[in-house]
Automatic annotation (TrEMBL):
Stretches assigned to the Protein SirB1 N-terminal domain: 44-193
Any Pfam family hit: TPR_9
Highest taxon in the source lineage: Archaea
Name of the protein this chain belongs to: Tetratricopeptide repeat protein
Length: 275
């Protein structure tokens, strides 16, 4: 592949996202700062979450019962502070930026789950974020599954099957692995892919490219991102950059479901670059 032009923002992101001294909240805010909000004060929004946690701590005292803590967490976030799931403008890119979600008190499953689990951690409740297909949720141990997008409601296996069916049709079956805890890198990647798709749909290809480069900063050999970078380079008419990326994708994933589409795109890119 041709040598990439050095991008200080991508370099900064890669270094920040891989630094164990920063937590998931800080990394999400750094993402927002690099992509859309260069003046964003990360410490200010960390303090907002701390304030939410401290006001809840003051109410619960020293009680350690998990059922009580979850109930108080839901009451505090959703009844008193008014956080809610953004059903009407679900695909608004702002719903993927933690600073906007904290300001507007509305977001999508992944951003609400990140805030929910962070506040829970600050009151001594260890909730794990679950990268469930199509709808991020949280769990307490392995028995209690909660949905912060719908006010922290308790989910059954039937509810989870319903989420799968709505998002992917009835051919996909629930498997226990879908409830594995997500890593910070997986969550950051998922957020960036949400944003990449939103930017692509609104023809903001440069922003979509930045998302792809940020994922590649964390996962340099991700076939999906190499492919998408190639597709974006083609849409930006940079055929000399698109071709090696698309070829690299097929080299990594020769049996990919979209191999025929990529082969056709390569053929088209070659024809255009020879004109």
């Amino acid at each position: 592949m041709s040598a990439e032009k050095f991008d200080p923002f991508i370099s900064e992101w890669t270094s920040f996202s891989k630094n164990p001294n920063y937590n998931l909240i800080e990394k999400c805010l750094k993402m927002a700062q690099i992509l859309e909000y260069p003046e964003l004060d990360i410490s200010k929004y960390v303090e907002k979450i701390n304030d939410i946690s401290n006001s809840l701590k003051a109410k619960i005292g020293k009680v350690k019962n998990s059922t009580y803590l979850i109930s108080m967490l839901n009451e505090h976030l959703f009844d008193e502070l008014g956080f809610y799931g953004a059903e009407e403008d679900y695909y608004d890119p702002g719903n993927s930026f933690l600073n906007i979600v904290l300001d507007k008190k509305t977001g999508i499953p992944i951003t609400l789950s990140i805030i929910y689990s962070e506040v829970a951690k600050n009151i001594g409740l260890d909730l794990q974020i679950v990268g469930f297909p199509g709808h991020v949720i949280v769990k307490y141990k392995d028995e209690v599954i909660l949905d912060p997008f719908y006010r922290g409601r308790l989910l059954t296996i039937e509810d989870l099957e319903g989420i799968l069916n709505r998002n992917f049709g009835e051919d996909i079956e629930f498997v226990p692995e879908y409830l594995n805890s997500a890593t910070a890198e997986q969550l950051l990647t998922r957020l960036l892919r949400n944003l990449k798709n939103a930017y692509t749909q609104s023809y903001a290809y440069d922003n979509a490219m930045k998302c792809t480069d940020m994922i590649l900063g964390m996962r340099p050999e991700s076939p999906e991102e190499i492919r998408d970078k190639g597709i974006l380079e083609e849409r930006l008419l940079r055929y000399d950059k698109a071709l090696p990326l698309l070829n690299k994708y097929l080299e990594l994933e020769p049996e990919a479901d979209d191999a025929d589409f990529i082969l056709e795109l390569i053929k088209s890119v070659r024809e255009k670059s020879n004109q």
